[in-house]
Fold this sequence. Notes:
108 residues; mainly alpha; 0% strand
Amino acid sequence: MSAKEVKKKMMYILGGTILTEDFFWKNARFIITLVVIIALYISNRYSCIEKVAKIESLQRELKDVKHESVTITSRLMGISRESKVEELVKKNNVDVSLTSEPIFKIKQ
């Protein structure tokens, strides 16, 4: 194909003359349906990509929150130990003492 023939075909397509042919009018429904399906496919793909990104973001956030929860739990366990409580009571001069007897006596 020569450059002149390519230019002529491009002008035929870009000029709109191709749309006046019977082929396009006979298959207009099919072409319109195909364009709508392609648009829906692109829209659906974009929507799915956004949702996947949101899911990944939420999974990272959940992982961070789980780590923070474990950290807070371990800190609470350390603070609430009997030795730590005794130390805080002595440090703040609170008049509380441990009992030497058990609170409940078991009778046989």
